[in-house]
Design brief:
The structure holds 2 protein chains of 2 kinds. Chain A is built from 9 helices and no strands. Chain A is mainly α. Chain A has 2 domains: 90 residues, RNA polymerase sigma factor, region 2, helix turn helix motif (Rna Polymerase Sigma Factor, Chain: A), CATH 1.10.1740; 84 residues, Winged helix-like DNA-binding domain superfamily/Winged helix DNA-binding domain (Arc Repressor Mutant, subunit A, Orthogonal Bundle). In chain A, helix 2 packs across helix 4, helix 3 packs across helix 4 and helix 7 crosses helix 9. Chain A starts with a helix and ends with a helix. By secondary structure, chain B is an alpha+beta fold. In chain B, the strands form 3 sheets. In chain B, strands 1, 2, 3, 4, 5, 6, 7, 8, 9, 10, 11, 12, 13 and 14 form a 14-stranded mixed sheet that branches. A 3-stranded mixed sheet of chain B has the order 16-19-18. In chain B, strands 15-17 form a two-stranded antiparallel ribbon. In chain B, strand 3 and strand 4 form a beta hairpin. Chain B starts with a helix and ends in a 6-residue tail after the last strand. Classes of the chains: A mainly alpha, B alpha+beta.
């Protein structure tokens, strides 16, 4: 089916574009949102990836599935967005001060019944860069080395942030 | 609290980042006391919890797909100097809208869209809707609410993509396997009936078989199992595992609102009917029970309704062992 979609995209088939949107836009926007935490930015990122897919449709060779291709592209674009954001705000991602921020107190709202909501809330209480690293490791299954390279930080920093994430989540999800 | 060093080893182990040396250090530490082991197990629990939450790929986002497609369309027209065939927005929706006014059921009609392209078909249902579609090979699919199937109109390869909960009744064609793609899961059959449930917010893809044999697989992980009638396969999306067990949810097709009717039907036939209706495994009844016949009509019954009626009519007992149902009783006399 996915091979056929690519073929149809190459034939400028409008229904293939519609299928692409109905199947992948929302899930991919979800992936992007988890990294950038900004709805409009997340949608723009998926738009960019889709437009790029369209522009290169005639030369594109996908060795994995369309799904993994899109997901990898979205994750990379979202990380780039994040880096640009930090650069614009004159903070290097490797800024030590920010990395060593205090563990926030556990919110009473975390004692909610709905476990999934609770977990997502717990993850969202992580300090921002700690959260970013945890999300990339846990959900996008990047290795510590890949995360370090993409964010231009040391592997040691990735490890420390993961340690911090685990400690906070232990408290929050007791 | 333990030192950050061990906390680091623990998450490295959970992330698959542990080196051999670190692994022996961690193992030694774990041997030291049951508290250390409990500390690891707690981390494993949290890891699993967050993994389950991670399956939730479609969070509450405000997404207007038509609007996004319009944006995309504008951009590709601006970006590419070569003429590109525009996406004809809303073309079909309008056609249906016109029909809907005539039929005076506009809300229902607009919620279910069927987009017919030159060679491509997408069928969707909204909240509270079900919809039956006959495929080009005469197989039928029935979509539960909030579901979607798409397939090529030629259907030369019997391949279908789905999301949501869908009942399939597949025409037998030995030369052309019928394949259902749902997320990373794939279901392959020759001719059977079964239900696939694949919801983005659920951690498993579930396949329950009413009749025939069904092969389920996760191609990317090289996993494959064959299901017999009455069995359910669970594809765990996070771990790429497949579990097979007797169906534990006999009411999985309640949404189809079917009728189950019997007219002086021997109990053995009633049981056969119940097997396919509820997708469960029932032992053949004992000799004593074969003389019983049932006359009854059930509209959209739950399994419990039918069992209650049976035990009331024939004084049978129902037991469940490892998911398999068994009837016992002294039988019926004329």
């Amino acid at each position: 089916m996915e091979q056929e979609i690519l073929k149809r995209l190459k034939e400028n088939d409008e229904e293939a574009v519609r299928w692409l949107f109905s199947t992948y836009f929302s899930p991919m926007a979800g992936v992007a949102h988890r990294i950038v935490r900004d709805q409009d930015a997340a949608k723009d990122i998926v738009q960019d990836v889709f437009v790029r897919l369209w522009t290169h449709r005639n030369t594109l060779q996908i060795s994995t599935s369309l799904h993994s291709y899109l997901r990898r592209s979205v994750v990379n674009a979202a990380i780039d967005h994040k880096r640009r954001f930090y650069e614009k705000n004159k903070e290097a991602l490797s800024d030590q001060k920010e990395w060593e921020d205090e563990i926030p107190p556990v919110d009473a709202a975390l004692r909610e019944e709905d476990t999934r909501l609770q977990i997502n809330q717990a993850i969202s209480t992580l300090p921002e860069r700690c959260r970013l690293i945890f999300v990339l490791s846990r959900f996008e299954e990047l290795t510590y080395a890949q995360i370090a390279k993409k964010l231009d930080i040391s592997i040691k920093t990735v490890e420390n942030q993961m340690t911090k994430a685990l400690k906070i989540l232990r408290q929050a999800l007791r | 609290m333990y030192s950050d060093y061990y906390e680091t080893l623990i998450h490295k182990r959970l992330s698959g980042e542990l080196t051999h040396e670190e692994e022996s250090v961690l193992n030694e530490w774990l041997e030291e006391s049951p508290q250390h082991r409990a500390h690891l197990e707690e981390a494993e629990r949290i890891w699993k919890l967050t993994g389950d939450a991670g399956m939730d790929m479609e969070p509450d986002m405000d997404i207007d797909l038509e609007n996004e497609m319009a944006r995309f369309n504008e951009r590709i027209q601006a970006d590419s100097p070569a003429p590109v065939k525009p996406i004809k927005r809303l073309r079909l929706v309008w056609r249906y809208a016109a029909a809907a006014v005539v039929l005076m059921s506009s809300v229902l009609f607009l919620m279910q869209s069927e987009l017919v392209g030159d060679d491509f078909m997408l069928v969707e249902t909204g909240e509270g809707e079900t919809r039956e579609v006959t495929l080009p090979d005469k197989s039928t699919v029935l979509l539960n609410e909030n579901s979607r199937v798409s397939f090529s109109k030629k259907f030369s390869e019997r391949e279908i993509q789905m999301n949501g909960e869908v009942y399939f009744d597949v025409e037998r064609d030995e030369s052309r396997p019928f394949r259902v793609h749902s997320g990373k899961g794939m279901v392959e059959v020759l001719g059977t009936s079964f239900v696939v449930r694949y919801r983005a917010d659920e951690s498993d893809i579930q396949v329950t078989v009413s009749t025939g044999r069904v092969a389920i697989s996760i191609p990317e992980a090289n996993q494959r199992e064959v299901l017999e009638p009455g069995y359910k396969g669970r594809l765990v999306r996070a771990t790429n595992e497949i579990f097979v067990a007797p169906n534990d949810n006999p009411d999985y097709q309640l949404w189809r609102n079917r009728v189950l009717s019997f007219d002086i039907t021997p109990l053995s036939d009633v049981i056969q009917e119940m097997r396919t209706h509820f997708g469960i495994v029932i032992e053949d009844p004992s000799e004593a029970l074969t003389s019983c016949t049932l006359t009854a009509v059930f509209t959209s019954p739950r399994l419990d309704d039918v069992l209650q009626s049976l035990s009331f009519t024939f004084d049978v007992d129902v037991s469940i062992q490892n998911g398999v149902y068994e009837f016992s009783g002294i039988g019926c006399t004329e």
